[in-house]
Protein 1
Amino acid sequence: MLGFVSRRKSLLASSILCGVMLPAAAAWAQQAEEPAQVEEIVVTGSRIARPDLTSSSPIAQVGAAELRASGVVNTENLLNTLPQAVPGITSNVNNGSNGTATVDLRGLGSNRTLVLVDGKRQTPTTQAGSVDLNLIPPALIKAIDVVSGGGSAVYGSDAIAGVVNFILKNDFEGLEFSAGYSETDKGEAPIYSADLTMGANFADRKGNVVLSLGYNKREALTQGQRGGMLARAWGDNAARTGFVPSGSGAIEPGRVDPFVSGRVINLTGLGRAPTSADSALFLSNGDVRRYDDTVDTYQLRAGQLLQTPQERFSVTSLASYEVKPGLTAYAKGNFVNSRVVTQLAPTPVGNRVFRFTLDNNPFLTAAAKTALNGLGSTTAYSIPTSSPWATGTYTDVDTDGDGLFETVTGVFNKRLSDVGPRVSSFNFSGFQIQLGLKGDLDFINGGFDVYYQYGNTNGSNSLLGDTSLVRIQQGLLLNAAGTGCADPSGGCVPVNIFGQGTMSAAAANFIKTRINSSQDYEQQYGGFSINGDTANQFSLPAGPIGFAVGFEYRAEEFAFNPSQDLATGNLTGFNASPPVAGRFDVYEGYAEVLVPLLKDLPLVKSLDLELAGRTSDYTGQPKAVQTYKVAGSWKVYDDLMLRASFNRAIRAPSIGELYAPQSNGFPTATDPCSARAAPNAAVRQACINSGVSASVVGLLNANQQTQTLSGGNPSLRPEEGETLTLGAVYTPSWISGLSFTLDFYNIKVTDAIDTFGGGTANLMNVCYGPLVNGNPNSPYCKAIVRLANGSIDYVVSTNQNVASRELEGLDFGVTYKTSLEDLGLPDWGTLSVRSLYTNTWLYTIKPDDISAPVKCADKFGNRCRGFGVNPVPRHKLRTAANWRFNNVGVNLVWSHLDDVVDDNPASRFTVERIGAKNYVDLSADWDVNDNLAFTGGVRNLTQEAYPILGGNASPSNSGYPAVYDVMGRTFFLNARLRY
């Protein structure tokens, strides 16, 4: 718990309450008995009430009917079909999933998209500050507003890309039960859901209470169960003209490379002299042979998940009560538990340095010992502190004079299938309590809202199938007889990693480690707002000035507590995660005005100016930061409105970005100096310049993923964003029901928080590219730490305010609703069409001052993904058509994704272009009577193929499963019972 309510803050809260209640009480005493005749509406993107739904910012809305027609259980799956969204973590992301579901507007990152529920912040889940959409109950969603463009002046930090506002059913009356089921056309991956919502009015309809219960279960589907191309990993052949079976260099038999520079394994039968680049593969009989990376890699996809399993429970209650006319108390309580499981291949020992007994090793043949004797060195050498389980200075010796060293050192790569797959079980529970009081203030023709909100998300994670590096090292060093461990403490058992299936059950149990972690994110959030206009005081010739003012206080605290092995990195298959703890407080004041400049003039039906500003004082920052908004709308005549908006937004550093200790991860990035990368002459020379021995450049064995150390930086500043939108809304009066919107947008983010060098892949490109050319004194090359044998040990890349991003594009929307009779056809119901189109022609990321810009518009690949950006097609279109006749409706949705090309012109892959994709969804709904309704349909009706990739795929499902449908044709059926 935060325990942050100090005396100072308690006094502040009291002042806020008194400051609002006193003028409010005076207003109630003076108010007239007759209520206002015109109901005003607060539109997402502004806090000023207005008599219509017009907005100076582009808004896309998804309604409850569209949610039902889509048949989705997880709302992110529908949001991600909107052209403004670039999918983040979904149910089809396995490797890289943290158990949450996110929304990412414009591809700027989920932490730059602000998520609201009924206009107020949702409690974050992760140390990055992202909101888990699983914690928002789908049965209560009435509509989802998506506002693209900055919103920090109105809502505060994080709204650089825009705002997603979930609007709940807060006035529900009756009872509604719904149940749903879906599965693929192969009978796979079933999803079950059930929801019960009850609502009632009381006290002569002065009060309303709603209770909603929800449950859904999503079954697992592995890539091996699906089969076909998805059942294994693929790489690119040498000519980059086709796929070849590929996988990880951490293989089940295991292999070893020299650690000491210049040492050579004495392999025989090669037809040539062995070199230091030769790796020895262990055979099950204890012998060795040369490892061949074209045929010996491990196939790691079959056990990985195509659909991650989930089980979710939710309980939500909403209540409101009219204390007296013009004064309403309201409350909300929400509890959600979401459990998600991910599964990876058995734990890898990847490029890990170990000392092991050679001379008296009973697991190795005499021939193998002779070959591996080449690993030893009579010259002292040191194992660095990056391998703490074996660190030290050693000289290998032959004590019995038989020509074999007693103990030697090697760099091991092995897949520990003996301990089973790696399974991550995420369990998130979140609850949020909100209390508020809102009322009318007739003297300003407006009202007030005082609110307090407490939210907590608690998560736990159990990691199964991993092993302890310390225990592996202990089990590799044997006593003089070779019958037991040299250090028998802790029940040590000799560990045989020399071949496939050679490890005893006792050894597997000894090296296993069960890893647990817990995390807790707590948010306290309160404030007040007042909105109204100046009509009772004065008016301009075009009308009164509308305004809104308010104050907010927010405190957020996060704590991550890992078990010891997870914290210290004493594990082989999962990333080290040290403990994290931190908090921040922010005090914010804001104001907004809507000024009518002109009205009812030739070519000026109305001309309005909108201004907003906010100042935010964060603890830990040297000074307060300001954001503002300047916007305007010009209704030329009833049919045509022009609008423009300029926003200056911020994103404050998250707790993780500020305080996370250094931990290791394994992003997709291949050593440019390795055989896998096939370096050209220029890169080869840069590798040599950086200190890599010329004899191993182009021969080093490397994995597609590289160990990277990253961590927080308490000196980070808030990011700054500038958003410009220019648009028009045209609703021709001569065609009833037709409307067009057109909006240009430009978003610039400066001082963007990113890892140094823009991630591992880009950092390597810079070090070995023409700008740095392998200069060993460059910070880019210093960040790449290599072992003595030349292979990469790890890369250092911590958070800094070094990057910038810029996007530019166009949104176009068409809506049309009419009756068939109005089209001259028989009176067979109504037809409605809504189409949203986005053209993103610019998305440029500049990692820092020296790196070349990375262009992500119309692109996909490792460089953009290193910045957290999934494929960004230039042209994206979503068109939904609905025909309804009496109690029957038919819905057709067409989603188009333009083709994209690989983002790295310096590299070549088999798939350099992912072709355009067209997804067609068809559904129908039938209201049997007033109480019973059914919805059924099929997603991806035409079975659009999933694009399989080689070396430029994401770590999940051989491609990009968040963007492209990997499940194939899927049928669903929902039933709804209402009273």
Protein 2
Amino acid sequence: MPDRVHALLVVRPDGRVPAAAHLRATLDALSRQTRQIDALTIVVCGGTGEVLDIAGTSGAEGVITAGSAVSFAEALRLATARLSGDAVWLLAQDTAPAPDALARLVGALEISQTVAAVAPKVVSADDTALIVSLGETLTHGGRRIGLADDELDQGQHDHVEDVLGADVRGILVRTSVWRALDGLDDALAGADEGLDLGIRARLAGHRVTVQPRAVVAVAGDGVAGLPSPDTRRRRRLRAFATRTAQLHRRLAYAPAGAVPLHWLTLLPITLWRTVMHLVAKSPALVLPEWGAGLVAAWRPAALARSRSRIRRARVAAWSSLSLLRISRSDLRTRVEADGDPDAAARPTREELRFFAGGGAWVVLAALVVSIAAFPALLAWPTLGGGALAPLSSTLSQLWANALYGAHSVGLDAAIPSDPFSALLALIGTLSPGAPSRALVVLWIAALPLAALGGWFAATRITSRDSLRILGAVLWALAPTFLVALVDGRPAALIAHLALPWLLYAGAVAHRSWASAGTASLVMVVVWAASPSLAPALVALWVLAVISTVVARGGRGVAQVVWTIIPAVVVFLPLAWAQINAGTPWGLLADPGITVSGGAGADAAGRLALVAGFPVDGLGGWEQLVSAHLPGLPTWAPALLLAPLAIVALASLLTPRWFVGAAALILVVLGLGTAFLAVGVSVAFAADGTPVALWPGAALSLAWAGVVGAALVTLDAGLPVRAAAARGVTIAVLVVLGAAAVLPLLASERRGALEITNGPDSTVPAFVDAQTRTTPNVATAVVTPLSSGAISLDVVWNGGATLDGQSTLLATRTSASGASVQFAGLVVDTLSSGADAPLAALASAGVGYILIPTLPGSETDAARATRLAAAAALNQNAQLADVGLTPKGELWAVRAGVVPRADAAASVTATATLVGVGQLAIVVIALLLSLPTAASRRLARQTPRVVGPRAREDDR
């Protein structure tokens, strides 16, 4: 039996509770031991005067002072020189042993001379029935596993004896072994210190045991062990320390020849674990993971000392530890048993009932309506008209236009792409053989996709099948959406299709990282398709952050904050370019081809906006009323949607007024944005005419609020016995909603459809064929205007494509120096027919000159300009007259054409940096959005409907 026990007590006042209070409790527990310690040495790390006074009057044989940054292992090393007993007892200020703890530990130590260390049962000071630690082991991958961590103490582990290691707090070690092992390894960052000590003791030929009847209570607030995970900062510190210790042990325990291999794998493993943390919805562990990897990789001296300690003391083989490692089957059993024990008692959400509740039938009906309303689309390979144009014919060019670099329009060598181009590239990739056909499919599927999104968004408001169907129908029949379909506005159409999914995921972003990741991805889509919605989206984001802080005490605020970050990062390159160009308001410009046609900023236009129509004429109703009902005011059809607005306003009078108010905020933001949009022009059409922002996307946001508020009214504003009234109201709203957009659905039969069977290319087939074999050659498109002036466009290869458009070019308020010089060369070529200007154009990559044939009548001034330009070009011997084509009259440069050079190395480096940065943030959001078993389990335990009463339950 050890004759003398020397206790080493380390104090560091950096916990939640003042160290003096912990120290008094620990000293009191030591004074009540049935087997008294023989000597006590206290190490105070940065202590206050009160702590030093308590230590000085404790009866300790010595008090050592050290800096506040000194770790537990370093503090023990300072006190080791004063050891005088046969055994050393390791304590911290928050370790309070039970009265018989030391007696039981000493008794266990005397049983066998081969036992080098005995550890107690470590329990929580707040709840002594909760086991903090009772022995530790390792997986085959080197991860620490607690044998009984966080279990309720029911005596189920009181038979445990031999272990691989144990918690360092309260462990009793033979002094001779402690000196031979050179104490604790201070490179472990405070984690796994007892486990490492046990492993080294066993390699030195000793045993390590636990004494379950010796109990030590810890507060998780001292210098030893890991801090309790009760704050975000402490959780990050635990993660960093645990991972640092694991990586350091891996390098220290590996054979000498394998250390370089382990070192080289640190970066790939850190990358892989980063992905896994994101998939597991634990982004808070990413920074600790990288910090631990860097620390472990760049401490060669600490690694050398650790390996030297093991080498000096080791007498046993590493294989002798295998029996004490946890097997894979046991580990799998423990993981399966670690599920939520209260899962069965938690409420589970109801079934979705997409098929049984009629959602699938609504989507199918919408597909039938789409085919019936637009049957011609089934035979069209490409769409044209409105803001539509063909996509690039190859996937490589499609994705090249989505990245930083040269575009298919303009003279700029390298500019950042619109994020909308990436959306088009994704859509076009779905039809790799003919990317433009993907837009045709999108147009046919738009109505059923809108119904699908509307139905799922409605599930956040109501659990009633009939109301979900109403939400799906009204969203698919939104006037602004059908105007985008008829007028050929792809950006507005995509924004309308994505918006319900943003509301669906964003409404519960505070609940989980999976929802936040999904919302952030959809936010990128909505923002890319409709940048003019950015102010409204930012306002909603700010309100969501404030609501989360106020209503939930900040829980989930990190998820809500994340929802906007990917969109901001994706837009950063374009924002930088617009600001440098002096056109910051250009960030609001509608992507794609710039066309006019939105509602005016006058009273009639405002009335159309209030009625939900982004164009004048109420979607064709004014024309029909004037032709067939001349006695009826042309604004009368706008009243068809008045009952829907009244039902929406009534949501403020329901028990779920909070949800209704949130929906009406969408209405205010949407209408406010639309009213401002029609009066703001930041982009210019091909003839230089300013074009106002398209208000349709803002009206989609407002429409979402109206429909959502109406669903709240019908869900919570009617008594249970008023089912018949609810059904009648639903039927009336559906009929009126369909009647309001009937002219739009009949656009093809009325001859009012703007979309057409578009061309495969915007340049003549001759140019398209030639540039496939000789790429990077431009066509100068000279368009005579009605005033007699000319408009000059430069398109490369197969012509201007939808994915090749750039808002950076469309929003320029003044031409660049290169553009002015280029225009001068074209004018000289058209006016004089001289060879020198044409040779300069050829050296700039121009191989063709096209005077397009424009639809409609031609003014005398435009005809004179066209004839004069054609005559000058025909007189130039360096031009070959290809002739009149369906696209216009074409000339080809005979010789001297220098194709556009490949991007410089600096441009390629910038493009790579921008592309990797944007891709990385999107991949992170995608990984966060991927569902896992844990995220699905959490989702099943929370209600699908948001805000079941006046405000959402505190879950």
Protein 3
Amino acid sequence: MSNSTKLQFANSVRRYALATASVTALLTSAPMALADDAAAKDPELEEVVVTGSRVVRDGYDAPTPVNVLGADEIKAAAAPNIADFVNTLPSVAGSATAANSAGSLSNGQAGISALNLRALGTGRTLVLFDGQRSVVSAATGQVDTNTFPQALISRVEVVTGGASSAYGSDAVGGVVNFILDKDYTGVKATAEYGETTYGDNENWKFNLTAGAKFAGGRGHVLFSGERVRQDGVHYYSRDWNKSGYFGVRNPDTSAGAPWFIVSKNVGISAYTPGGLITNTALKGTYFGVGGAVNQLNYGAVTGQWMIGGDWKYSSSGMNGTNSLAPDEERDSLFGRVSYELTDHLSVFGQASYAKYSGLSYYINPTQTGIVIQADNAYLPASVKAQMTTLGLKTFTMGTSNADMPASGSNNERETWRYVAGINGDFEAFGLAVDWDGYYQHGKTETLELETPTWNTARLTLATDAVVNPANGQIVCRSTLTNPTNGCVPLNRFGVGVASQAALNYVLGTPWRTQEFKQDVAAVNFRTNSIEGWAGPISLAVGAEYRKESMDGYVPTEYQASGWKYGNYKVTKGDLNVKEAYVEVLIPLLKGLDLNSAGRYTDYSTSGGVKTWKVGLTYSPIDDITFRASRSRDIRAANMSELYDSGTARSNSVNINGASVAFVQNLQGNPAAAPEVADGYGVGIVVQPRFLPGFAASVDYYDIKVDGVISFVTAQQTADYCTINKIASYCNNMIYSGGVLQTINLYYANLNKMIARGLDVEASYRVNLADLYEPLAGDLALRLQATHYIENVTDDGVTAINLAGANTSSTPDWVYRFSASYKLDDWKFDLTARGVSDGVVSNAYTQCLSACPASVSPYFTINDNHVDGALTWDLAVNKSFEINNMDLETYFSIKNLFNSEPVLVANPANLGAENTVGYLQTNRTLYDVMGRTFRFGVRMEF
């Protein structure tokens, strides 16, 4: 890079630091002030280009807001990984984490940490590593951020606005760019340990990083390695999760009564841990420990639920079976070598490897409608006698299968990434030009392994146990006619009664391997030296080629739908993308800049599309900056949406108040067209000269996505068919003998998605001695908040606003306040994280009597309120030096006051099988682990 251009970049960093601040969308004054100070001391920082624009120059403030999370903030948070810290930003909503993805059994997403800006979906947030794309971790296009070298991340830049014209597909909600500290020199290491106040979820983290110059400073080498271990929390429920807080269909169906009832002491009425008879005169008979026969005390029954009665016992086989935290093992290695061939040309090569192993449980598997014959050999004698007296030949039974293990995933994922690049500068036609190019090859290999789950055919055979009249032994009925079928009879009547041999027969561990490949080649050119009438004009042009492919293997016995969970199918496909862009920055008048960009992209799957942006920034005085932007962005279908051969997932839906089991078959659509998003943004940044160190900003965003690539859920399909009487959805529900077997779901371009909101930020940095001389130390205050105004997906039938619904990921307000105080070698950080009060659903009407008629999905409910929450975190750091080694010890407490999460009822999911076993809260918004301690030591020399 030329000296003149370096100076312009250095100035741009300083001007960015001083001129921009935003919530989850701007360059924030607190971290950027640190960057500004560092820039004055470290010339290496002169080459920083802030994410969101390909052109940056002195005096220019981007019209698209950017949030920079600096190294000090990342360290102070002491999060297990950087993604967990980024997820605390108010504009990051609904992200996938290893903890909340336990239910992703058949699609391979369990264990992935994928970021989600504006709650538009992880697929609409582009994640970059040092400005470059990274190979995906699943067919859905998600990039696991834990594959990045955590110890070498110098900062994280979050662009909360459309950036497709700069980076291509997926940047509808914005971009999260993890910036690599390429110039680190020295050796540093971290050792860290954490656990909760309950003594569980123990975790360890160790990393070692080294960097050195060679060849007289012309070369530089980097290495980093990290190991992370975490003990999960399984088969355990915190006390707050034991109150039976659910939203169910009101047992009182009289006119004027609310449709839904939210209440405590709600449990399941369709099964018990060891089996419950659900029809005939024996209804309510259940089998307990050792097969003991008991009678269930039913409460007020409503569908598969009941209020009161023995609710706690009936649900006890499910409560706590959804993992509170997963087991995790993560290992990563990263290496990089760079060399200056000449003063104007440098090359580099880097390689990384990351491995993940994770175990998490979804729920204990349930089964209803089991037909039991009167001659079943394991039936307790008293029940058999009653059947004889009543003349019963069969009964049906429901069970949560206490003798079987919980169903879950034990996934492994390995990612390799190789990059070779070149960058330099030259002069041509009187212009100073900087350029760079790179080639990247990435590969992810996955082993998706189910924990033991039953084979449906084998379970049916094993359940039908009889006495062999020839020898008096208990055998499968099928064995009488097929002696070599290998069937082992299974006792289903009670807790602790199943033999290991029978479980070995009915259970299996379905698995699938997948391989994802990505090849990227890109080249970029930039100049800031075109003379304009109001100042230098900046220009950037570039082109990129990308190819992605996926393949896999599933053993024949684990394909189709023969298993309770993990009915994997092989999905194969590939695509390639060719694109070119141009971006220009033109000073129009003093203080008024125009930023515009255009990109043409050609997808092998859907043809060519154009994206663009136009932005203005105006600073009439140094204290105030106005900005506005308009963009056209796109997202093309990922490989799952294009080629998914049918994800066969077992679940249940609510039909006429009853929970009905089925197999969900989600299929790709090669004809899916790219989504088209129109985004608008306006904002103001205020940094008054009369209050040095203070900055505040307000930004409004409005995003409309047409042709949203998604699918109508299974429950929506059932509702649209049975309630709304839409024939096309009824055609997707496949019955056999009057019994629902499959619900076919298809990716398609739905109508639209709308997201509107407001970002607010204020920050203040001051040396206390400047306020009052006897005081000492540096104080930094920062408030970030996002107001979600609208979050709607219109599927052509309904369009419900999820903003303000605390059952979703977009409550009315999300906010974060941090205060940092540094005095000599001590540093204290206090953080408050909160969400506002909200509702269960904006489609519901709260009433207790004289309620209006309910028409799906606009129901009445007795309590539509959900409380907000405020959670406090505290961190203390102490730095010192021993024998020329810099040491830092740190101690953090997350959820300082051990606040329990707010209980959240979600009656929209009352028919789902997993609702009983899932946490009775929204783990996306509320802290579920409780008070968590972390202690660590950082060493550097």
